[in-house]
């Protein structure tokens, strides 16, 4: 997906990709990336700053079945416009071998649960919006798709209750843009973008299963290194 969305003007820079050890996450892979997708930013946001200022710095700690991503979004915009100094976007993921029926896998407090809004995203859904097309949409029809290597699929209505194995990625998205006048609008735009990104990345994960199924971690790391070098070039 990074390669599909990268060209001479926009795309992803992989600055770090290395193993890590953490007291909470244990062992995993740390990445630090810079995203430049100025053309995909909402037109109203571009009125606050030049297009070349709209970038995102992302740190990620991937330690399956848990991972955490922290983004300093529009960080260059912060530097050019001091007004944009308070912003946070954090994504915490827990993967579970179930059909999405587990509750509070992130162990939220009562106060957090009261504020939480739950959305169920189905990779077999055909619904599309602006962000789906902006990110680039996977055109695979999962109601007809069947993996040649694993025999998994197709995903007809209610597939979550019939498929085995099945897995859910529980994502906790915490976002705060305390800007008077447009903070809520910015939060909603970013949530919509993340929603489309979650759908597209997991659709690709299943749609490309015959390309990666059975790979060793060493093979995956080699592909990541090759991809990172290609993107940076």
State the main characteristics.
233 residues; alpha+beta; Alpha-D-Glucose-1,6-Bisphosphate, Chain A, domain 4; six-stranded antiparallel β-sheet; 29% helix
Fold and architecture overview:
Pfam families: IP_trans (PF02121). This is Phosphatidylinositol transfer protein N-terminal domain-containing protein. This protein has 233 residues and is an alpha+beta fold. It has one domain: START domain (Alpha-D-Glucose-1,6-Bisphosphate, Chain A, domain 4), CATH 3.30.530.20. 29% of the residues lie in helices and 25% in strands. It contains 7 helices and 6 strands. The chain has helices spanning 43-46, 75-80, 110-115, 130-135, 183-207, 209-212, 217-232, and strands at residues 11-22, 26-36, 55-63, 66-73, 88-96, 168-176. Strands 1-2-3-4-5-6 form a 6-stranded antiparallel beta sheet. A hairpin with a 3-residue loop joins strand 1 and strand 2. The longest helix is centred in the C-terminal third of the chain and has 25 residues, at 183-207. The radius of gyration is 19 Å and the shape is globular. The protein starts with 10 loop residues before the first strand and ends with a helix.
